[in-house]
Specification:
The structure is a single chain. By secondary structure, the protein is an all-alpha fold. It has 2 domains: 56 residues, no CATH class; 63 residues. The radius of gyration is 26 Å and the shape is elongated. Keywords: Membrane, Transmembrane, Transmembrane helix.
């Protein structure tokens, strides 16, 4: 599929060509059908909806992170582990389920969730290490040998 910007320019030019008489109406209609001029308005509306949904998800995510981080120390260790692992499992299962869908929008959202799951893995490992005070030297000699 060609970029939307090119198709918009082509639609303006084709309308101008038809008005000037350079092409007749049947050629204009064939160009419009080939480059799907009728779908341009729907695509721009969908991109605005996608942008607003993304902004809403970011704001909700920030709110959840703020709420959890404000109450993180008061939660029992078992609850913290449950929240971390539960969120990780749910995001990855939902991402995999949506990734397998043949419809484009769901598949892209599934890919985004799988990416989020991969990022959550690193965060979960860091937070688990912090909660259980796991420390380690970069090099630990065995059997007292240096």
């Amino acid at each position: 599929m060609l970029p939307t910007k090119f198709r918009r320019q082509l639609r303006r030019e084709a309308d101008l060509w038809a008005q000037e008489g350079l092409i007749d109406r049947t050629i204009h209609d064939r160009i419009a059908q080939r480059y799907q001029f009728s779908d341009l308005d729907i695509e721009s509306r969908n991109s605005l909806i996608t942008l607003l949904m993304g902004l809403g998800c970011v704001l909700i995510g920030i709110g959840v992170l703020t709420f959890v981080s404000a109450n993180w120390q008061q939660l029992a260790r078992e609850w913290r582990v449950g929240i971390l692992l539960g969120a990780f499992v749910i995001v990855n299962i939902l991402g995999f389920y949506l990734w397998r869908e043949p419809v484009g929008g769901k598949q892209r959202f599934g890919q985004a969730l799988l990416l989020l799951g991969a990022l959550m893995l690193g965060g979960n490992m860091a937070l688990m290490g912090q909660m259980f005070h796991v420390r380690g030297e970069l090099f630990q000699p065995e059997f007292g040998c240096i």
